[in-house]
Amino acid sequence: MTDFRQSLEENAGAVTRALDRLLPASESPEARLMEAIRYSALGGGKRVRPFMVVAAARLFSVDESCAYRVAAAVEMIHCYSLVHDDLPAMDNDDLRRGQPACHIKFDEATAILAGDALLTKAFEVLGGEATHPDARVRCELVTELARAAGDEGMVGGQALDLMAEKVDLGVSEVTRLQRLKTGALIGFSCESGAILGKASKGARYALHAYAHDLGLAFQIIDDLLDEEGDEETVGKKTGKDKAAGKATFVSLLGVEQARTQADLLGDQAVEHLEIFEEKADPLRELARFVVNRRA
Amino acid sequence: MTDFRQSLEENAGAVTRALDRLLPASESPEARLMEAIRYSALGGGKRVRPFMVVAAARLFSVDESCAYRVAAAVEMIHCYSLVHDDLPAMDNDDLRRGQPACHIKFDEATAILAGDALLTKAFEVLGGEATHPDARVRCELVTELARAAGDEGMVGGQALDLMAEKVDLGVSEVTRLQRLKTGALIGFSCESGAILGKASKGARYALHAYAHDLGLAFQIIDDLLDEEGDEETVGKKTGKDKAAGKATFVSLLGVEQARTQADLLGDQAVEHLEIFEEKADPLRELARFVVNRRA
To answer: pLDDT tens for residues B206-261?
Structure first.
């Protein structure tokens, strides 16, 4: 295992422990709800977004316990979106990270509620005093995460994605879709480090630009894995977009050009980090990892 | 129309205008999502919870524009919960406020996303600077609303409610269920006025106690309307709980005792307001209205 893979895994472990503390198992009659919440949030994953939060926060020497709370909140949002996206009325996926999706393991109603609860909990965590001593910083985290996750961000992107099965989208429209659907939360993940560190506008913009390019590269690779990957390695059903006749970067650009584009975006992302010098090496390695990942 | 009904309607109009400003119609390709959000949030309703926010905030001479933002955020949470509760996998209701439920008017996927977006937007509004000049107050609003709405509040209550169809609950269990499902958000609605006004612990506790009793009275009347009301007046399907064999205050106490209990709780709620003297008259009238409502 490379050093980077090891630090990614160590970070994932720390995030899972933070989530475990913030989402304690319940003894109450509605324990099944908390079981579904924990199943959805603690079930693994590479925790790429939380890694971004923590790596960006380190650029500004932010207290680690603050950074991990924000990382956990971001992951709660990501996990809730997966639970709701997998529902029969949405993408209708039975498999997630190689395990039964939440609505299969439990039931649809419980999956809807578990998603709602995770979404709500993310804001409870960000608003809490332990997230940052300055309440203005906490408020900015709350409003920025809400913007990234809501109708002008992730949820808006998912709405567009549902339409994408019915209309023909071009490259610029798919780009906008993905900027909303996955880019906005990736953007918050990187920028939250700057918010926590009360960083300069320049530093914040650099992280924004890095996230913007890397987010698109991330999505192109996702499309390539859907096209080329096998279910066992990827941990979810593959070939779905093609079967649904959905426009993706791969269907629009072809496999080769899509890969070239992802490489280019990865390089471009890294260039934005120059002002941070070697302190940003973990974010540079993350960019390489994202572009070269096979699952 | 009584003076109180008129002031309730005026307040509902002001809340709807605030929601209209906070949820502007969209020109973007995903406009259908915003249409569903606006359909669900602007479609009327008595706006009882927002009335509580504004009436409680007036006790402490809180700036009205701040109070209406919190009122709108509370209503967003209430509306999202109705949209998700009406889904086929949950209560499977086609009718809401005499109109097609969101998933009937649009589709299930759009209804899930519209609910998610409304829930998210509530926190964006609370975190925004216009909600209160003091960021600590805004953070407290965020964390308290999240607690009231999440797994230890409204969502937890809804999870219990789904179980209630399968197990026999007694009065104390139904009381706990309703305290979570409807009581927690009603509690926040009243207490948020005290948070906005940086009120004394005593004043905040009085509002908490008022909300606690009134919330239960509210639910008992809801159960009575489900038992006795007709669909046209109530604006949603009635007789559902009985058909589902679900334990309610009415099935457990009988119609007469349930009504007596609601009256008693209404009186008890009003007693907690004594320290506010005549300034709390709108909250007293609200209690009478809640107990005597027929829809």
So the answer is: 999 999 999 999 999 999 998 887 666 666 666 777 777 788 899 999 999 999 99
Q: Report residue B74 as tokens.
A: 């509370």
Cβ <8 Å between A163 and B128: no
Residue B71: burial class (beta carbons within 10 Å; 0-12, 13-18, 19+) = buried
Which residues lie across from B100 on neighbouring strands?
A: B95
CA atoms within 13 A on the CB side of B147: 13
Asked whether the beta carbons of residue A107 and residue B89 sit closer than 8 angstroms, the reply is yes
User: Topology of domain B3-292, per CATH?
Assistant: Farnesyl Diphosphate Synthase (1.10.600)
Cα separation of A91 and A110, whole Å? 17
Under 8 Å between Cβ of A79 and A40 = yes
Q: Does the CA dihedral A119-A124-A127-A131 come out positive or negative?
A: negative
Out of B124, B160, B163, the one facing A147 most closely (by C-beta) is B124
> How far apart are alpha carbons A66 and A22 in whole angstroms?
13
Query: Given CA atoms A51, A56, A61, A64 in this order, what sign does their dihedral have?
Result: negative
Please tell me the distance from the alpha carbon of residue B125 to that of residue A33, in angstroms, as a whole number. 27
Interface test with B, best of A92, A120, A141, A163 (most B CBs within 10 A): A120
The per-residue pLDDT for range B91-141, each reduced to its tens digit, is 999 998 889 999 999 999 999 999 999 999 999 999 999 999 999 999 999
A89, A127, A134: residue with CB nearest B112:
A89
pLDDT tens digits for A68-127?
A: 999 999 999 999 999 999 999 999 999 988 899 999 999 999 999 999 999 999 999 999
